[in-house]
Amino acid sequence: MDQRRHPRFPVRFQSSFSSVNRIGGDGNIVDLSLRGCGIVSSTAVHPGTTLELHIHLPDHEAPLIIQQGVVRWCRDDRIGLEFLSLQPDEWALLQGIVKELTRQPYERTDDAQNGTGT
Known about the structure:
Blueprint (H helix, E strand, L loop, with lengths): L8 E10 L5 E9 L3 E5 L9 E7 L7 E12 L2 E8 L2 H20 L2 H4 L5
Antiparallel strand pairs: 1-2, 1-4, 2-3, 3-6, 4-5, 5-6
């Protein structure tokens, strides 16, 4: 049974990350919540590592920056990251993205679901 407090939503965002220990890499965000995300990356990162994460969003010039996140687990080229610290404007942006992800499945029209949308 899933014990998460915040639902995760499937996404596909490019990202880059780095740590004070000079670990750095790129990856794809594959799920996102208000408190964390899953990243697919070929860069090996150990649990407990603190990262700064840049999430490159479509239709946004600047990335969403997670100032501080901690790696909770890493296996099979996948990283589980918990968000610890964001600037207030970044927190507002993250909330807006998650709110939009929450609404998306319910706002589709029949045409869009059938692949015939305009």
